[in-house]
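I am writing to request your help with a piece of structural work I have in hand. Thank you for your consideration; the sequence and its tokens are set out here:
=====
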Amino acid sequence: MASEVEDGVCFHCLQPIPHGIELSVVYQDESQAVCCAGCQAVAETIIEHGLTAYYKHRDLDKPQQTPLLPEQLKELDVYDNPDVQSDFVRSLDNQAKQTTLTVNNITCGACAWLIERELAKTPGVIKSVVNVSNQRLHIEWDSAQIKLSEIITRLARIGYQALPFQQNQIEANINARRKGFIQRLGVAGLATMQVMMIAFALYFGVVSDLDPTTQQYLWVVSFVFATPVILYSAQPFYKSALKSIQAGRVNMDVPVTIALIGAYLASLYAVIIGRGEVYFESISMFTFFLLTGRFLELLAKEKALKFSTNRLTYIPNLAHREYQGGLEDISAKQLKVNDIIVVKPGETIPADGVLLSDKAAVDESLLTGESRPVTKATGDGIVAGSVNQNVTLRIKITATAQQTVLASIVAMQDAALADKPKVQKAIDHIAQYFVMTLLVIAAVTFFVWSWIDPDHALWVTLAVLVATCPCALSLAAPTSITGAVHRLNRMNVLVKGAQLLESVKHLDTVVFDKTGTLTYGQFKLISREDYSDVETINALVSAIEQRSEHPIAAALAHLSDRPVQPDELTNHTGQGIDAVINGQAYRLGREEFIQAWHPEFNAKPQSNVILASRQAVLAEFQVDDQVREDSHAVVSALKQQGIRTIMLTGDSHARAEKLAQSLAIDEVLSEQSPADKVDTINALQRQQRTVWMIGDGINDSPVLAQADLSMTFAHASDMAQTAADVVLLNDQLTRVLDVISTARKTRIIMRQNFIWAAGYNLTILPVAALGLVAPWAAALGMSLSSLVVVANSLRLYRL
């Protein structure tokens, strides 16, 4: 009961109440303290709608298992509360928002098509993609035009229950689905065994001249055993068919439902009038085989579903937050931006932040796959899910919940799993017409057989309806994509969409950025030439470079421990920086940038960073970085596959040419501005070349967006990661080869799936129409056809 809730604990979620929080709700005429505005909003909604039984019957001994929203809560307005949405909604540009919903009753590709079609005509919905494999809906919407509760309501009207996806509830959902299948399978299996024994007696009775009374008795017993199968075990097929009909379309469960109910009613009619044929054993066996196929598909899908959600389960439930010099333990979901937390050795960091301690060693293997600790210094970024290795850390929070890097990775992974290649979209479109055509063929078959042999007309028609159901065709692409995403995730490669499978088909050109891509981007000062006081130069350069995000800046930012404070800084992308320091104008950057002030100046061949004032050139620096160990192997492997390699860089021609020659790159384009790079990609595309671009800098985001497919690294700028289609989480360039090989293998497996599914349907149709396939054999064949597709796709799970 509510009175049993301890003092200092949130009445709703049972978590400790943070210091300084004074929020409450009124329950049974008593004020109850809550920990945050989100819990307050949920609790008030529960109480307002008379759902207080939730608080009476919950388990107070397991506070971490208490759901944020109880199942009894039918009013959906609470999902529009910003505090509640912070747990499962990501904010995008302007008013756009993004989330993933769990839709438990999706059965096939036709369900996905129906949901996407309904939302496509809904004002305010920007994008909706259903992933049949894990029964999730990835959706983006304009919150200024439509509320999330309205979207969920629209789905409910067409028969689909959608709720916000919560990672900590995934195991319960999986177990519930599996339990439901096992129960239905158990009933169908037991009934099939009993009815088959009776069927054998009836078959032998034909030979031994069974008397009518005994035959009628055996028919009635068969009816008794088959009825639970029809009324209980086969319910998933009826529900799916009914939803599609209500929406004005037909899906693949419509012919299955017609076959089951038609056979059952015909057999029941024979029992009532005492003559004809009964096929209760075929009905039971048919249902059992169909359920077996769906159950095995479910197990295969769950394998990918569990993998795709396991990352967020590592986020801890509690955090240690500082307040007025002390510490308090609060729920991690209560953390806010600018909070300061303390993370002890061995603990997992609960949110993204900036390190306030002098140094740290953190394990980021959850994100990158690299088990070696990463060293961090004051001011460095720390990501949620990292594990503190040695000393107690102080961290200032910069992002929480759905805004963290880890959450964005899971969101991008969900989007990739939900995305469909063009061929699958075409198949989904054709499938609805295929089912209509199938129903027409079945009707023609029935009338033809009614004229040839009326006793067999019904059963031949049922065989046609069942045998040609295009379930395998709808599974061909989703199971392949799920397997590919799973495979690449295990390689620590994040894929955002299905365009990978489209572009790899004609891939003939790979373009590399230089700095941070073919090289590590860890610059060092190699040499320098000073034309003025060294200490003054160091102070000026440090003052400018400490405020730059360019990779070269890190090598020069710490030349002085007493940098001066600039009055004004202006960044010229791809050129350099203008600065005003103590009223004096300075420039730091490339040779051409300096020549705008000093046309007569020519830098030394090795110099790539020059400092100048309006009056004179003050210093030249040679800053260089180290070539990646795997760059040569990657370039060589691409050339062996017939793929042209190009280096596209803003660096000087001499430096770029030197690296290109050492790596045997086919073509090098140097001294390229961001606009030049985009123009270069455009020119290649006008030559009908399929271009992949690999880069990592802020300057690379436009060209990454222009390429047919783009890749970047986990260390890349936020803009580059946003623009890229593929993110290499462990910073290994060789993963480029893995992406190509996996994409090509996926296309092969997808093609095999389509050929098998289409070939089976086209082959079995005339055979079934000729009356050569019994209904139970048709069900078995259809299930085996789907399982062949799933099993073939599972080959992608093996590394």
